[in-house]
């Protein structure tokens, strides 16, 4: 029952047009939207023609870098909250100061994004296309072209 | 009825009446955008500012709860002092003037960074910060005096909600001042980089929203409170 296509319920809208779980870049290419149910249109066309849309030109995609800052700040915020409840004033000061230091450290970063190379985008999206292709063949109308 | 007609007029269903499509242009940025996706994906500055507005709106929700609580509890003075016996209109007028002026100078810093003038950006930010500090000092003195007189947050429900809503705004101003100091340092060290300018935009939004909250606070806590 494991779903490889990212579209287990035959969805109509674009969130189903990528793999599940989605890759870091979410969508390999920006879809050209022509209506309110774009993925449905794409799939209807695919089934009519019994072939996937031609492979798009993959380009490198910039995505935000992962960061532990949210977790660390939440840790010090918890410390601060605990200290406030129990009136441990020095610990309040420590918690707030530490959270501020983490904030400044985060603000000082120079590189905020990294690039996923076009080859990686292509490799990941081709795997999804293979799964879609298998789905298409498995669900081909009897006697129809495959 | 007429609105539906206006949108749907002359379009078949499959012609994309809401212009969800990208209008043929690929990544031409927000310059040509009409707000209906016509110009392609929005620029990063637009996306960042939009996300920050979402944060600001969610930040307003706790404030609205505190305002509602204060409106209800304003007369619950438990035989203690009422607002008109405690508030000093002169102090509050000076605090308001500080904050409104700081919003003006904050706007000037946005103008100055828009034309990439380092000196005036820093001067405007510094004045904004000093006015913010003046506001906080005055507010802290008011609070300290109230507590010294025995009218702290534990005295009555009115004073609890008063300290909660005014104090919450004061904490926001304090956090804003920390941000402002960091912002000045970033501009000084890193210059007008695109990401620094986006942060400036967010800081401006934050500071103006603090001002908007103060206007509501002034009206509900002090003006209406004075009369009850």
Describe this structure in words.
The complex is a heterodimer of chains A (146) and B (228). Chain A has 146 residues and is mainly alpha-helical. Chain A has four helices and two strands. Chain A has helices spanning 38-49, 69-85, 89-107, 118-138, and strands at residues 61-64, 113-116. In chain A, strands 1-2 form a two-stranded antiparallel ribbon. In chain A, helix 2 packs antiparallel against helix 3. The radius of gyration of chain A is 24 Å and the shape is elongated. Chain B is mostly helical. Chain B starts with a helix and ends with a helix. Chains A and B meet through helix 3 of A and helix 6 of B.
What layout of secondary structure does this protein have?
The complex is a heterodimer of chains A (146) and B (228).
Chain A: H1 38-49, E1 61-64, H2 69-85, H3 89-107, E2 113-116, H4 118-138
Antiparallel strand pairs in A: 1-2
Helix pairs in contact in A: 2-3
Chain B: H1 2-8, H2 44-73, H3 83-86, H4 89-114, H5 118-148, H6 157-190, H7 194-226
Helix pairs in contact in B: 2-6, 2-7, 4-5, 4-7, 5-6, 6-7
Give a short overview.
The complex is a heterodimer of chains A (146) and B (228). Helices cover 47% and strands 5% of the residues of chain A.
Could you list the spans of chain A in which at least 5 consecutive residues all have pLDDT below 50?
none
| N- and C-termini, Cα separation of chain A | 23 Å
Fraction of residues in β-strands of chain A: 5-15%
Number of strands of chain A: 2
**How would you characterize the largest beta sheet of chain A?**
2 strands, antiparallel
H/E topology pattern of chain A: HEHHEH
Q: Give the C-alpha Rg of chain B.
A: 23 Å
SSE class of chain A: mainly alpha
Biggest sheet overview of chain B = none
Question: What fraction, in percent, of the residue positions of chain A are helical?
Answer: 40-55%
Q: Looking at the chains present, what oligomeric state does this protein adopt?
A: heterodimer
Count of beta strands of chain B: 0
* SSE order of chain B: HHHHHHH
């Amino acid at each position: 029952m494991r779903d490889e296509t990212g579209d287990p319920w035959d969805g109509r809208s674009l969130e189903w047009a990528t793999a599940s779980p989605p890759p870091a870049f979410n969508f390999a290419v920006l879809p050209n939207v022509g209506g309110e149910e774009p993925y449905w249109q794409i799939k209807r066309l695919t089934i009519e023609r019994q072939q996937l849309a031609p492979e798009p030109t993959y380009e490198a995609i910039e995505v935000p870098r992962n960061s532990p800052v949210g977790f660390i700040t939440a840790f010090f915020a918890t410390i601060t909250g605990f200290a406030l409840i129990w009136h441990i004033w020095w610990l309040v000061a420590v918690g707030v100061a530490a959270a501020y230091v983490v904030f400044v450290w985060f603000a000082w970063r120079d590189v905020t994004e990294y690039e996923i190379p076009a080859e990686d985008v292509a490799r990941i999206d081709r795997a999804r296309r293979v799964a879609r292709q298998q789905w298409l063949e498995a669900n081909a109308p009897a006697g129809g072209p495959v | 009825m007429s609105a539906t007609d206006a949108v749907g007029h002359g379009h078949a269903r499959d012609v994309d009446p809401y212009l969800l499509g990208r209008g043929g242009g690929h990544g031409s940025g927000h310059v040509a955008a009409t707000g209906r996706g016509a110009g392609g994906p929005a620029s990063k500055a637009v996306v960042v500012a939009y996300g920050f507005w979402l944060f600001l709106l969610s930040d307003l929700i706790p404030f609205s709860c505190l305002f509602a609580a204060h409106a209800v509890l304003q007369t619950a003075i438990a035989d203690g002092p009422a607002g008109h016996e405690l508030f000093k209109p002169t102090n509050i007028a000076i605090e308001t003037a500080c904050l409104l002026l700081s919003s003006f100078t904050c706007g000037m810093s946005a103008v100055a960074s828009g034309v990439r003038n380092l000196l005036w950006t820093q001067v405007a930010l510094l004045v904004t910060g000093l006015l913010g500090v003046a506001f906080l000092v005055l507010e802290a003195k008011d609070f300290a005096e109230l507590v010294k007189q025995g009218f702290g947050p534990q005295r009555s429900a009115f004073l609890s909600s008063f300290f909660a809503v005014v104090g919450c705004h004061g904490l926001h101003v304090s956090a804003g001042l920390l941000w402002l100091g960091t912002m000045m340092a970033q501009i000084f060290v890193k210059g007008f980089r695109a990401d620094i300018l986006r942060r400036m935009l967010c800081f401006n939004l934050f500071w103006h929203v603090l001002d908007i909250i103060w206007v509501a606070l002034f009206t509900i806590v002090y003006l209406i409170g004075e009369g009850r």
